[in-house]
Design a protein that fits this description.
heterodimer; A: Rna Polymerase Sigma Factor, Chain: A; Arc Repressor Mutant, subunit A; B: alpha+beta; Jelly Rolls; 14-stranded mixed sheet; two-stranded antiparallel ribbon; binds zinc ion
Chain lengths: ~200, ~270
């Protein structure tokens, strides 16, 4: 599973991989669905990771991932091709997840003896997170969205502070402050946990 | 070079983790850390947070088939971009609380696909081939995604989308495959078809199963029957594949045997405007 989308080089903020993404995005915008397929292929893993870290539930993460690509396809006209593609796409994913979190709790399927068998149910996932990783993600959940989003965006492979700022449409300074504060909050949470385990 | 205070050191620790610390600042930070156990501890803990997050995120693997399912959903989504308006008549046969339902898709400002019910009615469900189920709670105007494979509420209105047919398994044993973007309302031992096609297999059903439509009613017991509506909604065809079925249409009742078909014309009292 490659995760090498448009990625900002730490120094320049512009990448090698970015060109290919932009090219694909421009082609997709002209109606080339094959080009968009390549985008999905290339970015689905990182988008899923992002959604899973933000929403925790696998089914929610899958739904949000799909929704992200549907929306990206629909909004391609608004993508500014002078900028990197991955942060734009991740920004959409972040929004999808934000809204998913807000809409949560109202969705309770009721039970009456009638069942559906859909043609292609999602395959059960193999991946098991380690308890340590699980706790880290749980700790993330307890943070306010203001800090959770930048942290998750940053800790996706190879993302930079500039990418986080771009995805969230905030200044780099603001992104940096949120990252620093978020890290400090997590440190408190995780260290407190560790103390509890030790004592 | 001036000495750092702890506050500045803390900022530099974070900049380091951000991958943005300038080389000369790093030197100053290292000097500070060598002499300040407090900041050293902070650095160790923050580095631990850093690697735990990185590690946790990198462990998440997408489920198999995600790309395929995403593609499929995109295809389905493209086809339903247009607004579908379903106007149901106030005929007593259709015990809908409201007379009009409309589903609006593709609102760009919403996080999930939203389907809006113009008037409050019974819960409705939108099924899309393998993707998701959307459930209208009573008196909710916006459908929320439900769980795939979870039991559907009786009295649901379903809209089967997606590439493949969608199968409904009824508690009584009947199995119904929906296709052609079928819009149906689900009952216990009956289904109402407003649009599209369905195929009902009642060979395992406990009792008779009725397909009620604006064109006529088809009741089948221990058989397989298909109902297809044509594009303009004026006509539909009932076709018996196995066993037999009773077709009531145009004020006429008839028993069809396997291999036989019957054309049914729209009943103005039950007309569904799409
Ligand atoms: Zn210090």
């Amino acid at each position: 599973m490659t995760d090498s989308g448009a990625r900002s080089g730490a120094a320049s903020g512009i990448t090698g991989g970015g060109f290919a993404d932009r090219e694909l995005a421009l082609r997709a915008r002209r109606g080339d669905t094959g080009a968009f397929d390549s985008i999905v292929e290339r970015h689905h893993a990182s988008i899923y990771r992002l959604c899973r870290a933000l929403l925790r539930e696998r089914s929610d993460a899958e739904d949000a991932t799909q929704e992200t690509f549907v929306r990206a396809w629909r909004c391609l006209g608004r993508y500014d091709a002078t900028r990197a593609f991955a942060p734009w796409l991740r920004g959409i994913a972040a929004n999808v997840c934000r809204q998913a979190v807000r809409g949560h709790g109202r969705r309770e399927a009721r039970t009456i003896p009638l069942e559906t068998q859909l043609s292609d149910p999602p395959a059960p996932e193999q991946e098991e997170l380690s308890p340590v990783a699980d706790r880290a993600l749980d700790a993330l959940q307890s943070l306010d969205e203001t800090y959770r989003l930048p942290l998750v965006l940053f800790y996706l492979r190879e993302a930079t502070v500039a990418d986080v700022a771009e995805a969230l449409k905030i200044s780099e300074g603001a992104a940096r402050v949120r990252l620093h504060r978020g890290r400090e909050m997590l440190r408190q949470i995780l260290m407190a946990e560790q103390d509890n385990v030790e004592t | 070079m001036s000495r750092l205070n702890c506050e500045d050191a803390r900022r530099l620790i974070h900049l380091d983790l951000d991958g943005e610390i300038p080389p000369d600042e790093r030197k100053r930070l290292e000097e500070h850390l060598a002499s300040c156990p407090h900041c050293r501890a902070a650095q160790e803990e923050l580095s631990a947070v850093d690697s735990r997050l990185r590690d946790a995120l990198s462990r998440i693997e997408p489920p198999a088939g995600l790309v395929r399912r995403t593609r499929r959903r995109m295809m389905a989504e493209q086809r339903r971009r247009s607004l579908l308006r379903v106007v149901l008549p106030a005929a007593a046969a259709f015990v809908l609380v409201g007379t009009a339902l409309w589903f609006a898709f593709g609102r760009p400002d919403t996080g999930r696909r939203q389907i809006t019910l113009a008037q409050h009615g019974a819960p409705a469900v939108v099924l899309s081939g393998g993707d998701a189920i959307h459930v209208f709670e009573p008196h909710e105007r916006v459908a929320q995604p439900g769980q795939t494979g979870a039991p559907l509420p009786e009295d649901s209105v379903a809209w089967a989308l997606g590439e493949d047919s969608t199968r409904l398994a009824f508690a009584g044993g009947a199995r119904v495959d929906l296709s052609g973007e079928a819009v149906v309302r689900i009952g216990r031992d009956r289904i109402e078809l407003f649009k599209g096609h369905l195929r009902a297999d009642t060979t395992e059903a406990e009792g008779p199963f009725t397909i009620s439509t604006p064109w006529g009613d088809v009741t089948c017991r221990d058989g397989i029957v298909a109902v297809r509506s044509d594009g303009d909604g004026r006509t539909a065809y009932a076709h018996v594949i196995a066993g037999s079925a009773v077709v009531t249409a145009d004020d006429r009742q008839q028993i069809l045997k396997a291999g036989e078909s019957r054309r049914m014309r729209i009943d103005p009292d039950r007309e569904v405007v799409l």
